[in-house]
Specification:
2 copies of one chain form a homodimer. Chain A is α/β, with parallel strands linked by helices. The first copy, chain A, has 3 domains: 155 residues, Rossmann fold, CATH 3.40.50; 160 residues, 2-Layer Sandwich (Dihydrodipicolinate Reductase, domain 2), CATH 3.30.360.10; 83 residues, Alpha-Beta Plaits, CATH 3.30.70.260. Helix content of chain A is 37%, strand content 27%. The first copy, chain A, contains 13 helices and 17 strands. In chain A, the strands form 2 sheets. In chain A, strands 7, 8, 9, 10, 11, 12, 13, 14, 15, 16 and 17 form an 11-stranded mixed β-sheet that branches. A 6-stranded parallel β-sheet of chain A has the order 3-2-1-4-5-6, with helices on both faces. The radius of gyration of chain A is 24 Å and the shape is elongated. The first copy, chain A, starts with a strand and ends in a 5-residue tail after the last strand. The mean pLDDT of chain A is 94. Chains A and B meet through α1, α5, β11, β12 and α11 of A and α1, α5, β11, β12 and α11 of B.
């Protein structure tokens, strides 16, 4: 016997339309497997008269999102509007009314996730958000369930497809950052205003959500240190290749033995043998290090209507099954994380600087490193006419000491400019 | 308030001892997160007096596994004995008694999984087995839950760490198969009798379980076509590199549009850009292709006490939480899969043969391909004194036609021997 579950959909853009299509296409298979018949019964959109890529019965579309949430005929609410308001308000209303919510909204979760988790806990209903991080890749459910008994130490992800596409073009074709960005824009991988992607804000929201779930403590977008990829040059990438690395934009969440959480987004040099180094084009991947499980990586499509809708649908089926069983799986109330300042990061670093090519320069430069206790692992020098380019890889050092070293280097008369600084993934201590 | 859940553990080898250690070490953190206090209260072992790497209170160890299952104080049963009997009988008893079961037993599931799934369904209790395939990698839960609405087309996995270690040594150091196997044995990666690994039986059991879960139809170990890696030579790997491939032992499960399921294990040439090609050493990875989600890969440690115990612990927490909530998530009763015979496989092939180096040979050889409708995509010839070596990559062809071609080639006077045949991953049609 079938059991009909009525879905109220808030938003019908790329992901929403793909979800409607998937529910229509796979509905029979889902019913055969779960006994549940999913029906998208109400869909709230801003513009009711706009043409949609999917066919919806008359009367399903409305511009009144609040009415969809309040409709007693709606069992589960799916939110794919994005942004903080009105999504926050609508989700809180649904949870208060005892309706499970599935959302793909990273911005919302990275800013007011705790408020939503508490409301879900209070209402005794599911709040599921697999699609909010790394699109179609199963990540949140493995973190919450498969790794429920695991002490996770660090999660490093390539969680922004746009920047990974740009870096792949730079790495494989020697394209400049500007050309690779323009290509990504022309293919629709990058927005006209690419700030959110290239400056690391999008990845930062995802890093906050990952850290919250992996470490069971509230981390918000504002806690995340970030640097973008606009400063990465083809010269950096050439050096990286020569030294056995690829350059990737990483979102890193890690926890110290004393429970302090570090969360950061920045370009980094990743050793070629590391599984993240082979993640090409617009693919995403999340690398997890745990005490017992060792190293895990989850790889796939981090964006796009269909992959994201696939993750929403998995959550929707889960929420519907739980609803019918009268159960739910809440995150609970998360304590606020103690955030480790970026100054306390310990990492190896790559530094690229142009100096005057004359006697004593290397002595002066290396003196600044020594003064701040930053130990050099390897150095190479390249002549450039009047100038020389110096490339350093340091041993593991404190971020604050490296920043002091950089300030000291910039103060030297013989240093013309610091071209780039990249953190190096490897033998962190 | 804490709720104590008593675990009966069947078997205390590598994985069992690691589980006891993990429960002891992470118990407080698990309790803080879930409110459940896990206690390993009874442990059944063959030899009670043998020394164990973990400390267990007096009276916990017993040689009577049946008594552990029947003990009214045991809430959840964890089976890590391996093999079919007595594991099958003990698990059926537990399920009948309404006790959830967590097992890491691939052989059992690949042979009598359906019987166990039915017993779990009848008893209304969980039967969880994340650890049975690909060790610590979250695979079964993502397939069952995250991808619940996904139409999965194909799953390709590197699911045997021993053979991947051997192939990595051959690929990266040019080691012979025999030397790489001996090295794996000396490191404890391969058994003294390596048959189960190198002939693909271990991977075959995992392929059967993956196919059953991915396609919702019963596939057993006996349904799996398999070829091992003993015939792979360093020459094959050199050719693979030159042509842009790595050689990997793949477990492949795929479903046709008409619902026929193909399941096979064999060495294959994998394009270097494919994510599976970068899976090195003893790591495992499973690559999933779905209609909506596109391509996914899940990567990690496929074996070892701690990674496997981590997966068992995730299941154990899940089972304990469900038990306390009075719910369970069964696989249900799976219909028998319709198995596609290997003859109907469509793939590209690599063929390596030695022929006499004289006029007309290529004409005779290519005639055999043409006779059976196998179209050649590329060919190269290498002189070897009196002989020549011919390397062919075919377009996608039917397995039966390729086998007929091979029979025809072996019948030719000018063909001295067929050295190797490998399937090629790529543009399958």
């Amino acid at each position: 016997m079938s059991d009909r579950v009525h879905v109220g959909l808030l938003g019908c853009g790329n992901v929403g339309a793909a979800l409607v299509e998937l529910v229509q296409r796979e509905g029979d298979a889902i019913e055969a497997r779960t006994g549940l018949s999913l029906a998208v019964s109400r869909v709230a959109v801003r513009n009711v008269s706009r043409e949609r890529p999917v066919a919806l019965p008359d009367g399903v579309l409305t511009h009144d999102a609040g009415a969809v949430v309040a409709d007693p005929g709606v069992d589960v609410v799916v939110e794919v509007i994005g942004g903080i308001e009105p999504a926050r308000h609508l989700i809180l209303e649904a949870l208060k009314a005892g309706k499970p919510v599935v959302t793909a909204n990273k911005e919302l979760l990275a800013n007011v996730g705790s408020e939503l988790f508490e409301a879900a806990e209070a209402g005794g209903v599911d709040l599921l958000f697999e699609a909010a991080v790394a699109g179609g890749i199963p990540l949140i459910r493995p973190l919450r369930e498969s790794l429920a008994g695991e002490r996770i130490r660090r999660v490093m992800g390539i969680v922004n497809g746009t920047t990974n596409y740009i870096l792949t073009r730079m790495s494989e074709e020697g394209a400049s950052y500007a050309d690779a960005l323009a290509e990504a824009q022309s293919l629709g991988y990058a927005e006209r205003d690419p700030t959110a992607d290239v400056e690391g804000y999008d990845a930062g929201s995802k890093a906050a959500i990952i850290a919250s779930i992996a470490f069971g403590a509230e981390v918000v977008a504002g806690d995340v240190y970030h640097e973008g990829i606009a400063g990465v040059t083809t010269a950096d990438i050439e050096f990286a290749h020569r030294l056995g690395y690829e350059v990737k934009l990483l979102a890193v969440a890690e926890v110290d033995d004393d429970g302090a959480v570090g969360v950061r987004v920045h370009p980094a040099m990743v050793p070629r043998e590391h599984p993240l180094a082979s993640v090409r084009e617009s693919f995403n991947a999340v690398f997890i290090e745990g005490d017992a499980v060792g190293e895990l990586m989850l790889y796939g499509r981090g964006a796009g209507g269909m992959p994201t809708a696939s993750a929403v649908l998995g959550d929707l089926i889960d929420a519907a099954v739980n609803l019918r069983r009268g159960t739910s799986a809440s995150i609970g109330v998360l304590p606020r994380a103690r955030i480790r300042p970026i100054d306390e990061l310990r990492s190896a670093y790559y530094l690229n600087l142009d100096v005057l090519d004359r006697p004593g320069v290397l002595h002066a430069v290396s003196g600044v490193f020594a003064e701040h206790g930053v130990s050099i692992r390897s150095m190479e020098q390249e002549g450039l006419g009047e100038e020389a380019r110096l490339i350093f890889i340091t041993h593991v050092a404190r971020e604050a000491d490296v920043q002091a070293t950089l300030a000291g280097l910039r103060d030297l008369d013989v240093v013309d400019r610091v071209n780039s600084v990249l953190r190096v993934v490897g033998d962190e201590a």
